[in-house]
C-alpha cells in the first residue's frame, strides 16, 4: 500500500481524508497531543483496521474524538461535572471517561465491550473531520504497537508507511504529550492517566478533589483493561470438535467435526478474514451470553496479525472464574 503524506493546508487535504474515512479506512491525523491513527468509531471493520495497521494489537478501549459536547452527548451520558470540564478544556488535551448511552453508535470494538466510552474534543483537523463525517473518530497514537508516540508526520511515515493510505502533515504536535484521562464523578475526579492538563487545573475548573483510582478498581481507560467480557457459560478454546449441547463460535469456511449437532453457531468470518473476525468478536460473545448457555466451543483462530488480539480476548473470556 502506498502512503501519501500531504500538508493539512493542501486544498484537497480534508476532502481526501473525509472520503477515506467514509470508505472505512484508517488514516493518520495531527492533533495537539500526538498524531492519531483515526477511523470511523461506529464502523467495526474501520476500527479493526486501526489495530491491524498498528500491528501486534491488544484489544483496549480507544478514545473517540468529537467536535464538541453535542456529539459527545449522543455517545455518552454527560453529567454536570463533565460539562464543566469540557467547557474549561475542550477543544484540548483532556479525555473524559463517561457512561456509554444505551443507544450509542460507537462500535463495541472501540470501547472494548466496556460500559464506558473515552471521549475527547481535539483542536484542529480531527474535530473538523468528525463534524463533517457526522460520526466520532476512534484514534489511538499513530505508531506501531510498543513504539514511541509520534509527534510529527515524518515519524508516522517511518512507523506506518505502507500500512495506511494517508498521513496529513500538520507540523509538530504542540503539546507532544498524550491527553489527560479523567473519570468525572459527582464529588471528585478520578485521574486515570496524567497528561497535558495537570491536577491543579482540573481541581480549579471544578472545585473538586482529584484522586487516583483504587488499586483494585475496574479499569476503564485506554491501555488499562484487564480480564473482561466473559459470557455466562464456560468457554473452551481451540476446539477441534463440538461436543453435544455446546454452542460454537466458528472461523473460516471449514466445518468443525460435530458442528451439525451444535446448539447454535456464530461464524466470526466465513471468509477467514481476521479483520472481520475482530469486528464481530464482541457481538458473537454477546449472542451466547445467556444463563441457559452453559458451554461455548471456539474453533482455532490464527495467532498472526489481528489474530493475536482475538485470541487474547478469547483467553480472557475463557479464564477461570470463581464459583458464585
From TrEMBL:
Q: Which residues bind ATP?
A: 56, 60, 116, 141, 149, 193, 229
Which transformation does this protein catalyse, written as a reaction? L-threonine + hydrogencarbonate + ATP = L-threonylcarbamoyladenylate + diphosphate + H2O
Of the GO CC terms on this record, one is: cytoplasm
Single annotated GO MF: L-threonylcarbamoyladenylate synthase
The residues covered by the YrdC-like domain are 11-197
Q: Which GO BP terms sit in this record?
A: regulation of translational fidelity; tRNA processing
UniProt subcellular location = Cytoplasm
The broad enzyme category this protein falls into is transferase
E.C. no: 2.7.7.87
Q: Which InterPro entries match?
A: DHBP_synth_RibB-like_a/b_dom, Sua5-like_dom, Sua5/YwlC_C, Sua5_C, T(6)A37_SUA5, TC-AMP_synthase_SUA5
User: What keywords are assigned to this protein?
Assistant: ATP-binding, Cytoplasm, Nucleotide-binding, Nucleotidyltransferase, Transferase, tRNA processing
Binding positions for L-threonine per the UniProt entry = 33, 65, 120, 139, 179
Cited PANTHER family: SUA5 (PTHR17490), THREONYLCARBAMOYL-AMP SYNTHASE (PTHR17490:SF16)
Q: Which family does it belong to?
A: Belongs to the SUA5 family.
Q: What does this protein do?
A: Required for the formation of a threonylcarbamoyl group on adenosine at position 37 (t(6)A37) in tRNAs that read codons beginning with adenine.
Give the protein name, as stated in the record: Threonylcarbamoyl-AMP synthase
Q: Which organism is it from?
A: Aurantimonas aggregata
Amino acid at each position: 500500500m502506498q502512503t501519501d503524506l500531504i500538508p493539512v493546508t493542501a486544498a484537497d487535504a480534508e476532502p481526501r481524508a473525509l472520503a477515506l474515512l467514509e470508505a472505512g479506512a484508517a488514516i493518520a491525523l495531527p492533533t495537539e497531543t500526538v498524531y492519531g491513527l483515526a477511523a470511523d468509531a461506529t464502523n467495526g471493520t474501520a476500527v479493526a483496521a486501526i489495530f491491524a495497521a498498528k500491528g501486534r494489537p491488544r484489544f483496549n478501549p480507544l478514545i473517540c474524538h468529537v467536535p464538541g459536547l453535542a456529539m459527545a452527548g449522543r455517545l455518552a451520558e454527560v453529567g454536570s461535572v463533565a460539562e464543566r470540564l469540557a467547557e474549561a478544556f475542550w477543544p484540548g488535551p483532556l479525555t473524559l471517561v463517561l457512561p456509554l448511552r444505551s443507544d450509542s453508535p460507537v462500535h463495541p470494538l472501540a470501547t472494548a465491550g466496556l460500559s464506558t466510552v473515552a471521549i475527547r474534543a481535539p483542536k484542529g483537523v480531527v474535530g473538523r473531520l468528525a463534524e463533517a463525517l457526522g460520526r466520532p473518530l476512534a484514534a489511538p497514537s499513530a505508531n506501531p504497537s510498543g513504539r514511541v508516540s509520534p509527534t510529527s508526520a515524518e515519524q508516522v511515515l517511518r512507523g506506518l508507511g505502507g500500512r495506511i493510505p494517508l498521513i496529513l502533515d500538520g507540523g509538530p504536535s504542540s503539546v507532544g504529550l498524550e491527553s489527560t484521562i479523567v473519570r468525572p464523578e459527582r464529588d471528585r475526579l478520578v485521574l486515570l492517566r496524567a497528561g497535558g492538563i495537570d491536577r491543579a487545573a482540573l481541581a480549579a475548573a471544578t472545585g473538586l478533589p482529584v484522586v487516583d483510582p483504587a488499586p483494585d478498581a475496574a479499569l476503564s481507560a485506554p491501555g488499562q483493561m484487564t480480564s473482561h467480557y466473559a459470557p455466562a457459560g464456560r468457554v473452551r478454546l481451540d476446539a477441534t470438535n463440538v461436543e453435544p449441547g455446546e454452542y460454537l463460535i466458528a472461523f473460516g469456511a471449514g466445518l468443525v467435526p460435530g458442528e451439525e449437532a451444535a446448539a447454535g453457531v456464530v461464524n466470526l468470518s466465513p471468509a477467514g478474514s481476521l479483520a472481520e473476525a475482530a469486528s464481530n468478536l464482541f457481538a458473537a460473545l454477546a449472542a451466547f451470553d445467556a444463563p441457559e448457555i452453559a458451554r461455548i466451543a471456539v474453533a482455532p483462530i490464527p495467532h498472526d496479525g489481528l489474530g493475536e488480539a482475538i485470541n487474547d480476548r478469547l483467553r480472557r473470556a475463557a479464564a477461570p472464574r470463581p464459583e458464585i
